[in-house]
Amino acid sequence: MKPSNNIWIRRQQCPCGDWKCYIKYEGDDQTSASSQLGRSETTSTELVFTPYVGQIFKSDDDAFEYYSNFARKNGFSIRKARSTESQHLGIYRRDFVCYRSGFNQPRKKANVEHPRDRKSIRCGCDAKLYLTKEIVDGLAQWYVSQFSNVHNHELLEDDQVRLLPAYRKIQEADQERILLLSKAGFPINRIVKVLELEKGVQPGHFPFIEKDVRNFVRTCKKTVQENDALLTEKRENDTLELLEACKSVAERDPDFAYDYTTDENQKVENIAWLYGDSVRAYTLYGDVVTFDTTYRSITYGLLLGVWFGMDNHGKAILYGCVLLQDESSHSFTWALQTFVRFIKGRHPQTIITDMELALRDAIARELPNTKHVVCIWHILSKLSSWLSFPLGSRFEDFKAEFDLLCHEENVEDFEHQWNLLVARFELVTDKHMALLFSYRGFWSISYIRGSFLARTMAPEFSQSLHTFLKRILGGQTCLQASFEQTAFWILFVGLADWSCCNCWKSNQRWDAVYAYQDMLAN
After folding, report:
1. Is the pLDDT confidence value at 414 over 90?
2. Is-above-0.85 flag for pTM?
3. Distance between CA atoms of 471 and 202, rounded to whole angstroms?
4. Pick from 73, 101, 204, 504: CA 20 to 30 A from residue 460's CA?
């Protein structure tokens, strides 16, 4: 399994509580199986012309992709055969052949009682495409020097050709899900069934089969066990480094606040911090707080919570962060208690969060006089994962009516229109619609009218937070690096102006933070 390029990912667990249910966000890099299948079907129905001698390609990779598409459409697959290299041109000839080209050389039988007599699929097929490289006006290009489409075997139908090894791929999005289900003890056949149900794919229509899943899990098992031990050690080391960084900043900035908890082995569990400038800003703009828990670390297994505010110009303010070992009510309670202590007991009028049952309960206990609002943009981002499959072509109509419903200002009108909506789209028994209705007091305008929200519910504000977090967390390799970058933005450019400055990439970023603090001290 290829390691992820980014240790921070958006949380995919659905707030409905069913661990098999997860959220796919629009715009994420991962691609669902259904869309992959859609592309495969498109490829198979597109008009792919037969290659011909003299046909020119920019690269040998382009030629291989073209020939592979042609092969799939015509019921076979291809493989790379020999290549020829020279001192001046490098590789100047590539041979692509049918997957049944040539003959297997007889192998020495293993010294076992009942050796397997596995028959070879190779039958000497002569279908091929040979490429030659030439230099034209100083640029390299490849042309087809030989081509044959004569096969000595039966070509496959479309529902058979997709099962050839060359076309059976497990995408990264599915790889992560397969490993999670395997770790939970699911057998291979159940894993495939769960994926089919989640993706809305008909049985047997994935671009891979059970055998591929079994081989993938077997291959990854040893690597996963080794990685678990390494990641545990890395998490312990990096959290200690983060703690040391907090101590160092606290020595320089008396207003900087941090706290942490440890487990029975005295290892860091949770850690939270608020910057000095942010504490001072909270005294002016602390009426509304957004607590964002969108991201979690797949490397450390930690949830990232970020407290944001808004100034009188509508610009976002980053107050501080918390890293939690889990998403339990106990962890969220500690986070809220710590935040309140950092801000010297001044509770916000309004706190805005995502849908999270454990967090909702913690807020009700720790901030009983604070209005809890669920951001409507978090809800809208989940609708596609919840309802696009069951509603099919009617989903766009549903979205339009749901948007109108969101703007109902009267409670009775809202509930009446809600009943009409779920009845019209046959969603009366849908668990996600039931969940939304149970949360109506937290997100519906008819229920939260009169609450002070500033402009935090504007789409521009939510987008600015999401963009900021992606920029700060993108490509980080350790917790301290993320801590340093957020500190830098607080001290120098502020959250609102991050897009105007690229100086955070400098190797001097932390030295600059200390230099700035030294300047303030003097």
Report:
1. yes
2. no
3. 38
4. 504
